[in-house]
Design brief:
elongated; 155 residues; 3 helices; 7 strands; seven-stranded antiparallel β-sheet; PH-domain like; single chain; alpha+beta
Amino acid sequence: MNFLGDQQWLIIALVFFGIIAYIAWIRWRDRQWINRRFAPETIKAMSFGVNYFGLVSEPGSPRRSSGFLILLKDRLFYRSRLKKLELEIPGSAIFHVDHDRGHKGVNLHQSVVRVFFVNNSQEKDCAAFKLPYPPQWIKAIENSFLANTDRGASV
């Protein structure tokens, strides 16, 4: 028992590397799922550790789930890690993308990328995501779906 008391750094190191290994395993598992579902040539960008705050059209306050976001040639695809929630936004339905700190009238106290699109009911809707490198994601979405159009002008 005295050994464990003298080697506290070893316990801390094992816990730390255990957490790193768990994160790596989760990302590997997500990547395997992505490889089975999508052809590699259709994927333009992807981010793990994305937080999704729901759609404006959904009742209630913003919800939060964690997962990954993929920019495909023809759409945006989000999948949550635990709830297995999936969201597909066709690129042709996207008319604006921006950066804000709120969603559904609630200040989220963090930077989010908002994607405005026309949903299946032909109504304007908005999804919010906390992403790494928001300016790059905004530019990638604009270049993929809003380039050479005037859809981005009407929010």
